[in-house]
């Protein structure tokens, strides 16, 4: 079975119709490059019933869910898979209350599992944005009355966003980072952590991006009277 791709939940459920199918899927993904015991590191063993592996080195029996998000999930693997599917494909945040109602899970249980998923989804920084990337800085809370341009004395939170777009200008990935100010020093980390030097980057004319042109392919354009020019 190949990795599931797409956002059609009906196809997803058809592909993984029950807990056993989910366990089989996990086993295939986990051991597709061969078995390695998580206890002793031994690579010799045999498969057992229930999608488990018996290590010949230390006799440890490892389940397909061990050392994964789904280990000891008490509300069923298929439900857990569906929660991950919802969180990874939805463009809007789903609360633990909504998730609990949707899959008949206690709100507290849904919240705890969703926290584990969010932690696992945190960027490894191994796959930087590499295509068309738009970068812009903003304040959380919107524009302040009576103030034009960037406000340095504002108590509102400042942030910078990097959006990777497909050839059809559809959003692929997004990273947001809080910043102290709009200086090149504050803007640099999101570039270093999440954007490839081979990417085509578009920003506004803010001078804080100018020093980054030495390392990155940046095209600076005038913004439309302060409006978002990205999409």
TrEMBL record:
InterPro entries: Tnp_ISXO2-like, Transposase_Zn_ribbon. Residues 17-60 form the Transposase zinc-ribbon domain. Residues 129-218 form the ISXO2-like transposase domain. It holds the Pfam family Zn_ribbon_IS1595. This is ISXO2-like transposase domain-containing protein.
């Amino acid at each position: 079975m190949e990795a599931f791709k797409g956002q059609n939940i009906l196809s997803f459920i058809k592909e993984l119709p029950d807990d056993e199918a989910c366990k089989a899927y996990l086993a295939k993904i986990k051991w597709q490059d061969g078995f390695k015991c998580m206890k002793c590191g031994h690579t010799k063993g045999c498969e057992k019933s229930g999608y488990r592996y018996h290590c010949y080195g230390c006799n440890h029996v490892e389940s397909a869910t061990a050392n994964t998000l789904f280990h000891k999930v008490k509300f069923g693997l298929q439900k857990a898979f569906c929660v991950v599917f919802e969180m990874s494909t939805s463009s809007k945040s789903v609360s633990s209350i909504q998730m609990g109602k949707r899959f008949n899970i206690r709100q507290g249980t849904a919240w705890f599992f969703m926290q584990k998923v969010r932690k696992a989804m945190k960027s490894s920084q191994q796959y930087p944005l590499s295509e068309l990337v738009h970068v812009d800085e903003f304040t959380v809370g919107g524009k302040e009355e009576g103030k034009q341009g960037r406000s340095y004395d504002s108590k509102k939170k400042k942030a910078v966003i990097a959006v990777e777009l497909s050839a059809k200008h559809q959003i692929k990935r997004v990273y947001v980072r809080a910043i102290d100010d709009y200086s090149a020093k504050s803007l640099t980390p999101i570039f270093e952590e999440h954007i490839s030097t081979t990417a085509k980057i578009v920003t506004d004319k803010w001078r804080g991006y100018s020093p980054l042109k030495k390392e990155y392919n940046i095209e600076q354009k005038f913004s439309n009277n302060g409006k978002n020019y990205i999409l």
